Amino acid sequence: MNIDKNKIKQFIYGSIPTKELKEISFERKKEIFNNIITFSPKVFIPLTTLCRDHCSYCTFVKSPSDGGLYLTESEVLSLARAGESKNCTEALFTLGDKPEIKWKEAENFLTLNGCVSTYEYLLNMMDSVASNTSLFPHANPGLMTEQEMKSYKEKSVSGGVMIETFSNRLMNKGMPHYKCTTKSPHLRIKTISAANDIKYPITTGLLVGIGQNEDEIVDDIFNLANLTRDYKCIQEVIIQNFVPKKNTIMANAPEPEFDLFTRIIAVSRIMLPNHVSLQAPPNLSKDIGMLLNAGINDLGGISPVTIDLVNPDRLWPELKNLSSVVETSGQVLTSRLPVYPNFINKEWMSPSMYEKSQNVIDEHGYTNFTTMESI
């Protein structure tokens, strides 16, 4: 499908009823993914809550005086083994972007652990988890160079770097990304371009409602659709709704209207190419049932062990109930690795990660998660 910015605007803000728009996107979803809705059973590993930036809506990042720290290797393995005991397959490493550039405390910790950078420490921790457990690492370390990702690819199956928005205006004074240089759309696209060169599967996406105006939302969908066509490494797009958090600058900012958010998801599926999966986080939505027929084919990582440390007030859905809601929508909830089936091959995975994956996937590239107890 040709990408027409005017058509995107008409779809999102025009007169077509939401029900009709969802029917179009859901038919497209079924053509590509049939009746499958996937999720990744994961354990959250917050490797460090230190960061060189601090966005206006973030509660994950902390300064050293507020308790910002790194996890030790024993703590990392303890979390990973807890996830392994619950049949998880993903070790989600979440961390701040190169905090040693800003914080002496970060530099000191790394030196004590024989590392010169957070990149090196993350690589060591992913290696430890991959070597000592059955989990598959996925990392969100912020901006990444090609050389860093070459190393990450050896120890993980995928990485993530959210675009959030293509609007540079949101980096101006008084806006959510002010003085957050790592949130530059240009620099994030540069990371994705490097991942494409070395064939490293990447997750990216948008954060809807952090201050974009109507034209910027249209631009975000337009640019995202083009990005996924230019860079085949993008395995997954997350359309995430902004959720205000206490004790942040944006604590009183409104969430995006649910109908608008649903329309954005539907238009995203219509515009995205077939190789890209579309995710909406289930714990951030007031009615996940309404999103299941809007074009998504994935619900992201869900953990039976750890809370969502980026959105700590939003609990994961209970999997039995979620499975029932998915079934009511005429679809089937299926577990997956943090790399999608169409990327599970020797072109997109390191030899060790590919070999490891063959022990846990079925003939369709999915896994068999059996722990459906309450979270």
Care to describe what's here?
It is a single chain. This protein has helices at residues 5-13, 18-33, 73-85, 104-112, 118-132, 146-155, 185-198, 214-230, 258-271, 288-291, 319-328, 351-357, and strands spanning 36-48, 90-95, 136-140, 158-160, 202-208, 234-241, 277-279, 298-302, 332-335. With 375 residues, the chain is of the alpha/beta class. It has a domain at 5-39 and 138-357: TIM Barrel (Alpha-Beta Barrel). Strands 1, 2, 3, 4, 5, 6, 7, 8 and 9 form a nine-stranded parallel sheet that branches.
Write a concise keyword list for the protein shown above.
375 residues, alpha/beta, TIM Barrel, 9-stranded parallel beta sheet, 12 helices, 14% strand, globular
The overall pLDDT average reads: 95
| Helix count from the secondary structure assignment | 12
The assigned structural class equals alpha/beta
Largest sheet, strands/sense/barrel:
9 strands, parallel
Q: State Rg.
A: 20 Å
What is the total tally of β strands?
Answer: 9
Helix content: 25-40%
Strand fraction: 5-15%
Order of helices and strands: HHEHEHHEHEHEHEHEHEHEH
**Shape category:** globular
- Assign the CATH class of one domain: Alpha Beta
Which runs of at least 5 residues are low in confidence (pLDDT < 50)?
none
CATH topology of one domain: TIM Barrel
Short note summarizing the structure:
The chain is α/β, with parallel strands linked by helices.
